[in-house]
Amino acid sequence: MEYKKTLNMPKSGFPMRAGLPKREPEMLKHWEEMDLYNVMLKKNEGKPRFALHDGPPFSNGGLHMGHALNKSLKDFITRSYAMRGYYTPYIPGWDNHGMPIESAIIKQNKLNHKAMPVSEFRSACHEFAQHYIDVQMEGFKRIGVLGDWEHPYKTMDPGFEAEEVKVFGEMYKKGYIYKGLKPVYWCYHDETALAEAEIEYQDDPCTTVYVKFPMNDDLGKLSHLDKSKLNFVIWTTTIWTLPGNLAIALHPTRAMPSSRTRITARCTSSLRRWLKRS
Q1: What's the predicted TM-score (pTM) here?
Q2: What pLDDT is stored for residue 33 in this prediction?
Q3: Are 96 and 161 in contact (CB under 8 A)?
């Protein structure tokens, strides 16, 4: 007896094996032929709108796992809202400006950008960025992401740049643009400003330090000593404050001076009283 025939198994048209390497490209091709993205839009046309604005990737290389995760999650969200009856336009885009593009083309194409005219270097960056837009777009389609791939936005398009200038002008008219003072981190290697999130500090095992400070003004109290060889020695546990030190303060009864970044009038007067009593 063949026991398999005695089982009441469900009948299905699904194959026994998934065979995704073969079946997935066929499925994606079927979606493309039926224009699934526009079919979804037409189905929910006139209904409440849900637009997920695509934070663009840099067009400076092939896809990595971060791209795959980012785009897949956005696709999940957009499709889920479409299934709930929302009108869900999704316009993918790319960031084509900044050091990521320039650094990648200099490294990959071995360009000496300092020996090139600025216009020639910009044209090379433009072509480089467009190439990786095409590469990444094919990758996103292969992942199965639905969107308006025929009309993506690119920050290097003249129309996009014109809108940026227009918005900047409106901000200036409203007084949002002004000149002020702010410390800016600078990378001497890439020759560009850095965001605070890009700064990482290396741990230093040193927890305390002794530092000597030269004597500049003894107020006439130590004239019998050679001031060129006279120093105050301080001990501190806040080593990172040393670049901002303005002075040292001495206690009348303590032998060890202490270092302080922010010197108050009280500390200064204490120093003067101590020198007068000396």
Answers
A1: 0.66
A2: 94
A3: no
